[in-house]
Amino acid sequence: MDGGDVSYASLVPYLFMFAIVALLLGILMFALITLSDLESDLVNPHDCAVRLNSLLLPEIVLQSMLCTFFMVTLSVTGTVTNLPLLVYNLRMFFSGKMELDVTEIFKQLPGEKRQRMVKLVMYMVAFVIVVFHLAEVALTAVAKEHGKDAVHHIVKEAVSSHVV
Hints:
The longest helix has 42 residues, at 105-146. The protein has one domain. The chain is mainly alpha-helical. Helix 4 runs antiparallel to helix 5 (105-146). It has helices at 12-39, 45-53, 56-72, 76-95, 105-146, 148-160. It is elongated, with a radius of gyration of 20 Å.
């Protein structure tokens, strides 16, 4: 960032991105817990398939929004790390391979868990990127409004206030 046109209003896209990544992580954790429940016989295959299939479209919409925000904010790292996953999910969704089949769910279970663990890693990377950019934009906005001494003071306080 060049710091020229940074204001507190420039935090808005990153706050939306933070909320989107949080929702994606929530959906993914729900899916992993549901698959674990199926594996432990705590939920029947039909309920598991219905629950997980109902989350496919919201996940794709949220991931599309996240990629769009990464592109709009010119985050090359965020775009490069999330666009391949979005393309993969769209291909799987439109080919009909993303939906869980009730009759085949136990055969699909190991692959589904592995796929969701990979997504978890990708969404955690997105979370780190968003938090980094959010902090960068916030500190740049503070520096623009209050000067570099204010940023130095904020960072110094953050570093010295570690919890023992």
